[in-house]
From TrEMBL:
PANTHER family in the record: ALCOHOL DEHYDROGENASE (PTHR42901:SF1)
Listed name of the protein: SDR family oxidoreductase
Signal peptide: none
Keyword Membrane appears in the UniProt entry: no
InterPro entries, alphabetized: NAD(P)-bd_dom_sf, SDR_fam
Signal as UniProt keyword: no
Pfam families found in the cross-reference section: adh_short (PF00106)
Length: 261
């Protein structure tokens, strides 16, 4: 019997790389996508030497308009169908919104929202036809509240959460399991890329290993969980915030985002 295929964006590092390990260990062939080609090639070699799966690296910048269509055309022309789509690629930016880089904001929204949405739109109809498949979207615990000093990133994850919950409802009973994976601070390149490593959030909420988050995400998706928040401290934070006025939550997040001294 042929292996199923999972397409994972942002598999060159962090949570995406660990998700690639998990899916390969479950016998999935992989299509792994990111910009850093050499990391993808290393991962291809590593996974194929450990597991009886085939790994196809695709070097692509997902911030480019039309990149979802390019990827879809590439995988379709090779006759591959994708059983599970993992929209993991994403990044943030730190600082006062009025001082942020306009192009960087645009690219962030493109990767975190536009490409994620387009890939989901392109790959789900074939899953629906087969009445089998899955989508895992990387949201975050930041999706549940506004995020001063990372306003665009938090808002982008709120979109991912809302979109994913709505999609899960539309696809209920279709054979396609849809999950929004919501980690808190995780040990990856994210804090460096974002400039967040010295924030109260990352100093006080000790980041957890990306491997644990990936394994948790896979299990949650397998069980058909729609919103999967990693870890008790994160679940408690999200639960507690329900009882606070939005303004208070906003100020609380501003404090958490501040650089710790
Ligand atoms: N770490 C955390 O604390 C945390 C918490 C909650 C949610 N998340 C979310 O988890 C996801 C994975 O992040 P991570 O923490 O694992 O960070 P990471 O180690 O920096 O990984 C980000 C991945 O996204 C890829 N990526 C970024 N921009 C891209 C682009 N323009 N085109 C193609 N690929 C791109 C990167 O690949 P290349 O650089 O090779 O392109 C990399 O593989 C993100 O969506 C992030 O928002 C992270």
């Amino acid at each position: 019997m042929m292996n199923q295929t999972a397409l994972i964006t942002g598999a060159s590092s962090g949570i995406g790389l660990e998700l690639a390990h998990v899916f390969a260990s479950k016998g999935y062939d992989l299509i792994i996508v990111a910009r850093r080609e050499s990391l993808l090639l290393d991962l291809e070699r590593q996974l194929e030497s450990i597991h009886p799966v085939s790994v196809t690296p695709v070097t692509l910048d997902l911030s480019l308009p039309g990149s979802a269509a390019t990827l879809y055309a590439q995988t379709s022309s090779s006759g591959r169908h994708v059983d599970v789509l993992v929209n993991n690629a994403g990044f943030g930016d730190y600082g006062d919104f009025t001082e942020t880089d306009v192009q960087k904001n645009h690219d962030m929204l493109q990767v975190n929202i536009v490409t994620l949405t387009a890939l989901t739109r392109l790959y789900t109809p074939a899953m629906l036809e087969r009445r089998h498949g899955g989508v895992i979207n990387l949201a975050s615990i930041v999706a549940f509240q506004p995020g001063p000093l990372m306003a665009v990133y938090y808002a982008s994850k709120a979109y991912v959460l809302s979109f994913t919950e709505a999609l899960a409802s539309e696809l209920a009973g279709s054979g396609i399991a849809v999950t929004a994976l919501c980690p808190g601070p995780t040990e990856t390149g994210f804090a460096d890329v974002t400039g967040l490593e010295k924030s109260v959030l990352f100093e006080r909420f000790r980041p957890v290993p990306a491997k644990d988050v990936a394994e948790f995400g896979y299990r949650a998706w397998e069980k058909g969980k729609v919103v999967a928040i990693y870890g008790l401290p994160n679940k408690s934070l999200v639960f507690g915030e329900r009882f606070l006025p939005r303004g208070v939550t906003s100020n609380l997040m501003k404090w958490m985002q501040k650089k710790a001294v």
